[in-house]
What we know:
MetI-like fold; D-Maltodextrin-Binding Protein, domain 2; 5-stranded mixed beta sheet; disordered N terminus; 3-stranded antiparallel beta sheet
Amino acid sequence: MSISRFTVMLLLAFLATTPAHQIFAAGESVRITIGSKSFTESVILGDMLSHLAQRTGIEASHQRQLGGTRVLWNALLGGEIDAYPEYTGTLMKETLVKENLQTEVQLKQTLAARGLRMTRPLGFNNSYAIGMKEALAERLGLRKISDLRDHPELVFGFGNEFMDRADGWPGLQQRYQLPHHNVRGLDHDLAYRGIESGTLHVTDLYVTDAEITYYNLRTLEDDLGYFPAYNAVILYRADLEQRAPEAVALFKRLASRIDAQAMRELNARVKLNGAAEAVVAASFLEDNLALDIDLEVKTAWQRFWRHTREHLVLVGISLSAAILVAIPLGIVAARYARLGQIVLGIAGIIQTIPSLALFVFLIPLLGIGGPPAVVALFLYSLLPIIRNTHAGIRDISPAIVESAKALGLPSRARLRIVELPLATGAILAGIKTSAVINVGTATLAALIGAGGYGQPILTGIRLDDIGLILQGAVPAAMLALLVQGVFELVERRLSP
């Protein structure tokens, strides 16, 4: 099978596994996409919305744990998703902070101007809070955030998003005049491990987190009133009211139905008891809205094969495209020294961009899901192939090249008959390196909704579940070893 034919087949597979809203601008049937942030509560609420939409007969998909606020907000504005759970405090003090909004009425008006709508509050205020171990707080006599001023030796660890938010650490430090400089940014869920182990002393909390009770944490009083109300709402595109009015009507039925205690219990069922978010969400809707939810629970093997298919498609398309582009670029670089330095330099610069940053940079251009992931992986695959193709051709003995010229072989024939066969080993080594890097980097694609083995890894980190992490990490490692072995075998067979 030729490389081009193989690439076409992979492209077709990619299209088959990509959410429909990313492929078609319009269609006969209504399709909506729900988004959620990368913490348990948001995923549960996202599953509720997905269940409600499907209850109306609409084809709904849930892009789970897409990342932070900005990713979801931009995806909503761009039409990549149609709705997601959000909080009024986040909208007013972070997303739309430049608007200087003071009331929810003003907030609704500002959203409407952007083609967005917001439901009434769901019934709970999931405010930020600052917390620490109860025993440590009691020993030091800490009851208010302002009490922290007298203990600069304490180590702070905040969620990465909280570190940079307008309503996060910078403003908190300024409001309370906190002298602390030993402040670390990390994943929100991992901060609890740090608190439990004693490597961290103080962290940011969501007041509905189940871990507050589980880890016996004290929530410090916000005595200067820094944190606003973070009333949970459903944010959705205005055109959804025309496209899927029944779904919007069901979304609105969630208003005032979920109080803080209920949300803590839902979070606990997932994070502490190991229940699936979709199951917990369905159970709540059945008990509180009297709705029958037809829930299809996938087996572990079904999830594994889905992740495998997604990962293989991402790697296959991006690597195939890189091979088709990088080998010709490597040939050009070898033939034209000055141009070659430019080509290698550009490819090298791309390689230095942090992979997560590159994924995020591509979202405004290509949206979320498979397309930006494939492009990012393609770009990361270029340098090893270009460099090895260039080196393989340049290292050919000048005597051999001169002999080919003496035989009257034109440039193209010389390349095909002499140079490429002699450079095969180097080229295949470059492809092998790119393939292994590609397999590992593709796990990050789950952060932007592209699926693959990164999905169970992210979920496992969020739920503190080593088993889930291994479900993604082990297959990814095995696939990398398999790919390496296959290319080594091909290299031995094709090298002269």
